[in-house]
Amino acid sequence: MKPEELEAARDRVIPDVVAEGLRVLFCGINPGLMSAATGHHFARPGNRFWPVLHLSGFTPRQLSPAEQDELLTYGLGITNVVARASARADELTEEEYREGGRLLTAKVELLRPRWLAVVGVTAYRIAFQDRKARIGPQERTIGDTRIWALPNPSGLNAHWTARTMAEEFGRLRAAADAAAAAGD
Residue ranges of the Uracil-DNA glycosylase-like domain (predicted)? Predict the structure, then answer.
């Protein structure tokens, strides 16, 4: 994709992939320019979301960003804390994160997923004003929806490998499976 095509995607909003009663609603920070240009979540080639989703057992094969709607068949969905696209997450303001947290809360109250998985603990901390949050399950809930903070799958997040990310995503998958088996 040409640089001018990416730049033209700045501030675009891409549709959520959602339905009521999902097992897990994954929540990115905000769409990158590649995602906004293609209309597909986590579309940048270096992003590890799709490989990690498969490695952790959420999907039986690695989906491509263009296959994002197939997530719904697995009880999974995708949204974002901040809807507008940017080249980097550091272009977002704290107010955008906080407003995103308010809008995300309303979305979760409406859709009632079993789990909300925020991919990016820093985004979670700002959006929900919980400065001490760590990767893993959170004490906070939104109604009956439990929350899990996951590592950011961006290729820029060098602290986590695909393998260690898949382990953490796998912990969430096991918790979601256990809750489903228990009828929660």
Answer: 15-176
